[in-house]
């Protein structure tokens, strides 16, 4: 096809009122727009790259934390028997130390406690009715010994009435008043046994043992 070349000298349109943009300036605008578009594309690319790198770093940190946690758990698991053994050893050592401290305190207090016990025992005995004490001491022996065999209980005349009434439930027992027997004393006679009871003598024996043990403990304490 042959191209026709028709010169246009005049257009049947009205020219724009505004100023015309020179072709060179329009070319600059177009070039600037292209630069901006390229810059925006580059920026978007950088953002995507940065986001990808950030995600990678976050994942690496998570992996590092998990690895450290696993290593710590493995180390704890390996060291647990030793730590448990050490804890048991420390506990045993503490218990031994506490026991030694307790024993030391007891050793130092025991002489004073025994001395105080002796004092309280004697005061308690002096405050009691010796007749009542005789009843309490004799009743278990009578229950045990006087099943069928008859027996005689020799007591002080001042205590005869009370003891006679107290042991009236034992028909095979005869309570006898004897001048040679002091208050707090009694003698039980059966075909099989002869039992002498002296409350004052028993008290002296108890106090003597307490005093002897207290002196021994005091000597051991002074040597320590």
Any overview of this molecule?
The chain contains 4 helices and 4 strands. It has 224 residues and is α+β, with helices and mostly antiparallel strands. It has 2 domains: 53-127; 129-214, 2-Layer Sandwich (hypothetical protein PF0899 fold). Strand 1 (151-155), helix 3 (157-166) and strand 2 (173-177) form a beta-alpha-beta unit. The longest helix is centred in the middle third of the chain and has 105 residues, at 23-127. It is rod-shaped. It starts with 22 loop residues before the first helix and ends with a helix. The mean pLDDT is 73. This is Type III secretion system protein.
Descriptive labels:
single chain; 224 residues; alpha+beta; hypothetical protein PF0899 fold; 2 domains; four-stranded mixed sheet; 4 helices; rod-shaped
Query: Nearest-angstrom radius of gyration?
Result: 58 Å
Name given to the CATH architecture of the largest domain: 2-Layer Sandwich
Strand order of the largest sheet: 2-1-3-4
Query: Helices and strands: which structural class?
Result: alpha+beta
Q: Low-confidence spans: pLDDT under 50, at least 5 residues?
A: none
Q: What is the domain total for the residues? A: 2
CATH fold-level name of the largest domain: hypothetical protein PF0899 fold
């Amino acid at each position: 096809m042959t191209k026709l070349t028709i010169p246009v000298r005049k257009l049947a349109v009205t020219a724009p009122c505004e100023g015309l943009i020179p072709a060179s300036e329009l070319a600059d605008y177009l070039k600037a727009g292209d630069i901006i578009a390229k810059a925006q594309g580059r920026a978007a690319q950088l953002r995507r790259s940065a986001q990808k790198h950030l995600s990678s770093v976050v994942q690496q940190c998570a992996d590092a934390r998990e690895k450290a946690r696993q290593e710590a758990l493995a180390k704890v698991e390996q060291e647990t028997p030793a730590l448990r053994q050490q804890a048991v050893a420390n506990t045993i050592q503490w218990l031994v130390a506490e026991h030694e401290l307790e024993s030391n305190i007891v050793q130092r207090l025991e002489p004073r406690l025994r001395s105080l016990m002796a004092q309280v025992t004697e005061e308690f005995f002096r405050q009691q009715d010796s007749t009542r004490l005789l009843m309490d001491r004799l009743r278990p022996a009578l229950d045990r010994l006087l099943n069928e065999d008859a027996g005689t209980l020799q007591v002080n005349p001042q205590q005869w009435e009370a003891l006679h009434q107290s042991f009236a439930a034992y028909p095979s027992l005869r309570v006898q008043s004897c001048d040679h027997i002091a208050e707090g004393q009694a003698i039980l006679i059966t075909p099989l046994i002869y039992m002498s009871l002296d409350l004052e003598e028993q008290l002296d024996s108890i106090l003597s043992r307490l005093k002897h043990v207290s002196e021994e403990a005091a000597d051991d304490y002074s040597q320590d």
